[in-house]
Amino acid sequence: MLRYTLLFFLCFTMVHASLLSQENPLKIGVAGLTHTHVHWILGREDIGDIEIVGIAEPNRDLAQRYSEQHGFSMDLVYDSLEEMLAATQPEAVTAFGTIYDHLGVVQTCAPKGIHVMVEKPLAVSMDHAKKMKALAEKHNIHLLTNYETTWYPTNHKAKAILDEGKIGEVRKVIVRDGHKGPAKLGINQEFLDWLLDPKDNGGGAITDFGCYGANLMTWLLQGKRPNTVTAVTQQLQAENNPKVDDDATILLTYDTAQAIIEASWNWPIGRKDMEIYGLTGAVYADNRNQFRIRIAEGYDGFSEEKMELPERESPLNDPFSLLAAVVQGKLQLAPYDLSSLENNMIVMEILDAARESARKGKTITLKK
């Protein structure tokens, strides 16, 4: 009897310990504070799935401002990423510095087995992206990319309808992203300094907002690479954006479809929307929650259904919940998932080709 009692106790203890380990929050370090998307994680409701254990930011004034705004202790702030990692031992790091710095974050974290999530886009260039991919694979870490539109229920509804064949095979996709421009929005100087720098950001609107459409199209077409990339850029606010483009149109062609990506810092009203046209109908992801589907009737007639979509269930509604779920083995990303490395390598290939196309004034054919 005693033997069975001890056996039961040992089994219960092991199961209980396993459950506790699964419930432990993911320890996250924050690399940089100059990207204002950092407010996403600093101002996030504490739901117990992550814990910020350290912040690497040499600008003490900036860190102090955000400390007062969000209520974190300045004891969490370190002058360098190396110092923060050594002192806090995070399991993952979220990068909120310049896009150019993404490579350095991976170079520092990957050899230590620390997983990384960067803000979009993955890198400033395909060259940087290849180095990051090699490091992630060599050291077996997850390397995710976060886009705001990944969490839009409307985009996921659009893909579900497309996959179900409700509007027929896709023929044209139009993705529009942007706002009136960083300077006009009055963003803080720490962010503005590098967002308008072609080295640190990789470009202007073509990088900042062109990546969204490339990411979505790669996902919709399940990893297909475009055959050609054609891009036109303009600088319509030279006084505000002297070193970079502020308006870009990217045209992608595939065997049986075409994508038009309109990325701009000249929209009078901020927007992130997508239209998908199939053989028998169309869907409109008008914003995060408002969605329409039209089924063709005759020449120009259609029936239309409008929807107001609820937020997605956790962990599919938040980048840091997703990061925790992936790192802790609770969730495996689908092939060419919006956050995945394989998707975002294609995004970088498209962005590099788009910048080359705009610079040379010609269509770029991607190598097979």
Percent helix range: 25-40%
- Give the distance, in angstroms, between the N- and C-terminal Cα atoms: 69 Å
Q: Could you name the CATH class of the largest domain? A: Alpha Beta
Count of discrete alpha- or pi-helical segments spanning 4 or more residues: 14
**Topology pattern, helix = H, strand = E:** HEHEHEHEHEHEHEHHHHHEEEEEEEHHE
User: Using only CA atoms, what is the Rg?
Assistant: 22 Å
Low-confidence stretches: 1-22
What's the arrangement of strands in the largest beta sheet?
14-13-12-11-7-10-9-8-15
Shape, please? globular
Taking all residues together, what is the mean pLDDT? 94
Features:
6-stranded parallel β-sheet; 37% helix; alpha/beta; single chain; 2 domains; Dihydrodipicolinate Reductase, domain 2; 368 residues; 9-stranded mixed β-sheet; globular; 24% strand; Rossmann fold; disordered N terminus; 15 strands; 14 helices
